[in-house]
């Protein structure tokens, strides 16, 4: 009997929480995710090809509202959201697993980060939370780091990546 998707999701969630909240080194979280999310079907060349072929519809920054004191609040960058056309034959759950596996392998030095210019799905020595959900017939990919500085870097990479993979959409008059 295989591992259920809920078990994989729960294990990944635990790895993310451990990496962010208890100081578990990102490489330790990545090794755990690689063990759970990667299999022989998720090869580095196949993932690189998938990432190079992605059709991005749009990108937007994610923010969270912080109350600094009773009289002052601010919005802080909390990641990036890319909306993609779904790759043929790939479900949102499968794409989540593929991107998490890819992120873990790059972080562990098993995949060359230069293979995908401005790859938004990893940061050196940092663990990222990557989730893919269906959205209006497309896929919304959220990428979140655990600091504002890292989220700014994620957004910058995601923006450059999106511009290189942007799907031309004609406006309707």
Secondary-structure map:
Blueprint: H1 5-21, H2 26-37, H3 44-53, E1 56-69, E2 72-84, H4 92-107, E3 129-135, E4 138-144, H5 148-165
Structure description:
The chain is α+β, with helices and mostly antiparallel strands and 173 residues long. It has helices at 5-21, 26-37, 44-53, 92-107, 148-165, and strands spanning 56-69, 72-84, 129-135, 138-144. It has one domain (5-165). Helices cover 42% and strands 24% of the residues. A four-stranded antiparallel beta sheet has the order 1-2-4-3. Helix 1 packs antiparallel against helix 2.
How many DSSP helices?
A: 5
Strand content: 15-25%
User: Rg, please?
Assistant: 16 Å
Low-confidence stretches: 14-21
First and last CA, distance: 54 Å
What characterizes the major β-sheet? 4 strands, antiparallel
The structural class is alpha+beta
Name the assembly state.
Answer: single chain
**Pattern of helices and strands:** HHHEEHEEH
Cα shape: globular
Rounded mean pLDDT score = 84
Share of residues in helices? 40-55%
Spatial order of strands in the largest sheet = 1-2-4-3
> What is the β-strand count?
4
């Amino acid at each position: 009997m295989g591992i259920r998707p809920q078990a994989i999701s729960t294990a990944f969630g635990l790895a993310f929480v451990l990496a962010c909240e208890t100081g578990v080194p990102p490489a330790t979280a990545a090794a755990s995710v690689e063990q759970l999310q990667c299999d022989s079907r998720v090869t580095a060349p196949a993932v690189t090809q998938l990432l190079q072929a992605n059709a991005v519809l749009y990108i937007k920054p994610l923010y969270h509202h912080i109350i600094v004191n009773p009289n002052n609040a601010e919005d802080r960058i909390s990641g990036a959201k890319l909306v993609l056309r779904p790759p043929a034959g790939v479900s949102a759950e499968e794409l989540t697993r593929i991107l998490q596996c890819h992120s873990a392998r790059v972080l562990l030095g098993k995949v060359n980060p230069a293979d995908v210019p401005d790859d938004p799905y990893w940061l050196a020595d940092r663990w990222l939370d990557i989730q893919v959900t269906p959205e209006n017939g497309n896929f919304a990919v959220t990428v979140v780091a655990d600091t504002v500085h890292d989220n700014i870097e994620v957004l910058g990479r995601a923006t450059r990546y999106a511009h290189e993979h942007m799907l031309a959409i004609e406006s309707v008059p």
